[in-house]
Amino acid sequence: MRVELSIDELVDGVRSSDRAVLGRALTLVESNAARHRARAEALLTRLLPFSGRAIRVGITGVPGAGKSTFLEALGTRLTGEGKRVAVLAVDPTSSKSGGSILGDKTRMAKLSRDERAFVRPSPSGGALGGVARKTREALLVCEAAGFDVVIVETVGVGQSETAVAAMVDTFVLLWLPSSGDELQGIKRGIVELADVVVVNKADGERIAAAERASSELTAALRYLAPATPGWTTPVLTASALEGTNVDAVWRAIEGHRDTLQRVGELDRRRRDQEIAAMWSAVESELRHRLHADPAVRALATQLERDVASRAIPAAVAASRVADAFTQR
To answer: Would you list the domain boundaries of the chain?
Structure first.
């Protein structure tokens, strides 16, 4: 049986970049078990003063955009120049079995073996849009461990992008070489979140298509407000497979961060993110307590039957559940 580490031992291990202890610290903060809660909160409180120094990058993309290949190319490029990189790759969790694929170390095999990198597959647990509920806490732990860059990969284009954009400095959207017709299907909200857009897989016979997609996306962005004041969202072409223009993408990410700092947006953005994270945690905690309340559970069982049989509207049932919880 593995001996439970004290909070002091966990803090010291994380701060000294002990990979085994880092893994155990992340497991603790990601746990939903009630018996782990106090320890996780104590650990996060101790590590918080050492966090906040990393460059935080979110990466998303349409299905097939090559996120994992791009992440590996970017990550190895950064470790090659001496940076330490953590990747929090959020996997989809099955709504039926509760299991997750957790295949990121297979998909990013080279980066996973890199001593200057740390790849953490994290099951989403059914959270909104596939974003792990504890991803933000994991990000803080990785920062406290001294990583220079922390990258959060989302499962794909969807609601999760808003959640990831709310915890990073720079949000990168990967796109595929495509025609104008395919461009019509892109969600405006996703593009509005992007600080950098990359048309990936710009290699071989797809180079011309990638250039067309870049031009079309650049034109579309002219009609949208920039995600960052004073910053014009660039659209770059790249080939993660061949390593083409990966350097240019990183320079764009650095340029965006420089702009955030110059206009005073970085500190403001992070303060706003902290407050938003607090209220998100409040909502999550209230939802957990509501479902755990015995009286609410008993009432909800009957109300579910009434709603299913159309005896009462869903909104009325919701009010009764809320009243039962708040009046206790």
So the answer is: 1-50, 52-263, 276-326
